[in-house]
Amino acid sequence: MDLLNKIKSLAETVYEETVATRRHIHAHPELSFQENETAHYVAQRLSSLGIECQTGVADTGVVGLIKGTKTSSQDAKAPVIALRADMDALPIQEANEVPYRSQNPGVMHACGHDVHTSSLLGTARILSDLTDQFSGTFKLIFQPAEEKAPGGASLMIKDGVLEAPKVQAILGQHVQPYIDQGKIGIRPGMYMASADEIYLTIKGKGGHAAHPATFIDPIVIAAQVISTLQQVVSRSDPRIPSVLSFGTIRAEGATNIIPDEVYIEGTFRTMNEEWRATAHKKITSIVHHVTEALGGKADLELVKGYPVLFNDEELTQRSRGYIADFVGEENIIDLDLWMAAEDFAWYTHEVPGCFYRLGTRNEAKGIIHGLHTPRFNIDEEALRQSTGLMAWMAIQEMENGK
After folding, report:
1. CA–CA distance, 286 with 325 (Å, rounded to integer)
2. Are residues 184 and 257 in the same domain?
3. Exactly one of 30, 35, 88, 261 is catalytic; which is it?
4. What spatial distance separates the first Cα and last Cα of the chain, rounded to whole Å?
5. 115 touches 175 (CB < 8 A)
6. Which of 127, 166, 204, 398 might form a disulfide with 296, Cβ 3.0–4.6 angstroms?
7. Rounded distance, CA 45 to CA 28, Å?
């Protein structure tokens, strides 16, 4: 049996176990930086496979190492490929009526991290059965806190996850409920946006609404600030995708009461790091100049979040070929740019990375709900692909990406 079919056979062998693992993790979700039980579970599973693992990386992260025996993995030139899964859940009350629904009130795996973790454990089992088929080392990264800034990826990098042994490339898999089960999505180059948070307080002087000469209206100032800020995007380079949106405006006034201040929250996202830095300066300048010109003051906090996620062109083109081998060219989806953000982006700024999408949608089964919603779920048939596909991609890149 050739390697491709052997991996597909092993993926079928681990399928039921992967489903059970996914359901266990789904039923016991933990929020960002609180993944203690999940990390313990992952470490136990890796140890049961005889995989060397390190716990406590970025507090709750787990890292496993699988060394090939095809040639000496101690060779200085032996490649090291990282495979990443995230483990944290979201503060959402699950609405699904399934036997494995969340047992932790107000916490839910609504972004598929249960799938990512269970799939990588399945991939680990496949790779541990195939050590004679590759040289070098696979580094399995089970990462905390993808959902919460500054992102567990950045903290794991600071803790040296890409070093000792030094990683040459990294692969990441993420569920996509907008793609049918059986399909895989991929895109070379820039794929996902940076994401920054805006927290702004406009301060004026409140008073009776009937006496405008006696107050400085922070609501009028806020309206002018928001309107003017739209020019940051509308009058920027149209070739660079950008979004500036505000989701919170809070003023504790009334029909005849002008408040002292207005509180605003928003987000800025883009696909270009140089423009991102320039836009931050523009946002800051506009906020302060408009506010001061109208007699108010502004307290602005612009929190820099995840960077642009850039899929390495060469690695991603090779990966597309590996995916075609495994699922067929007809089952590959060429992804569009997506203005959502992912902390896998931190890895792609350090080493060549490829972040691809696992289709999980099945309209016939009613599995149609989006990420970060109370009824998000997956077609578990996707778990027949998820483990073997990553194992195949990893081994192929180990051999072809040197």
Report:
1. 52
2. no
3. 88
4. 25
5. yes
6. 204
7. 16
pTM for the complete prediction? 0.94
Domain with 316, as residue range(s), is 3-193+307-400
pLDDT for res 80: 97
Residue 74's pLDDT band (boundaries 50, 70, 90)? low
Phi, psi torsion values for 69, nearest 5 degrees: -120, 5
Tokens linked to 340: 């959502």
Q: Phi, psi (5° rounding) for residue 25?
A: -65, -40
Residue in 209, 191, 181, 226 with CA at minimum distance from that of residue 312: 191
Contact 355, 190 (CB under 8 A): no
Q: Check residue 366 and give left, alpha or beta (phi > 0: left; psi -120 to 50: alpha).
A: left
Question: Residue 228 corresponds to which tokens in the numbers above?
Answer: 């003017």
**Given the residues 146, 147, 342, 379, the one annotated as active site:** 146
The residue out of 253, 281, 303 marking a domain boundary is: 303
Q: What CATH number is given to the structural domain containing 274?
A: 3.30.70.360
d(C-alpha 5, C-alpha 388), whole Å: 10
Which CATH number belongs to the domain containing residue 128 in this structure? Answer: 3.40.630.10
CA distance 35 to 334: 33
CA distance 342 to 169: 17
SS3 content of the chain, % helix, strand, coil (to 5): 35, 25, 35
3-state secondary structure of 81: strand
Q: How far apart are CA 11 and CA 126, in angstroms?
A: 7
CA atoms within 13 A on the CB side of 94: 23
Q: Are 109 and 26 in contact (CB under 8 A)?
A: yes
- Residue 122, helix vs strand vs coil: helix
Can 88 be counted among the known catalytic residues?
yes
| Domain final residue, candidates 303, 335, 356 | 303
> Among this protein's residues, is 146 annotated catalytic?
yes
Q: At what angle do helices 313-327 and 383-400 cross, to 10 degrees?
A: 130
151 shares a domain with 20? yes
Do 298 and 312 sit in the same domain of this protein?
A: no
Residues 200 and 136 in one domain: no
What pLDDT, on the 0 to 100 scale, is given for residue 156?
A: 98
d(CA 94, CA 301): 32
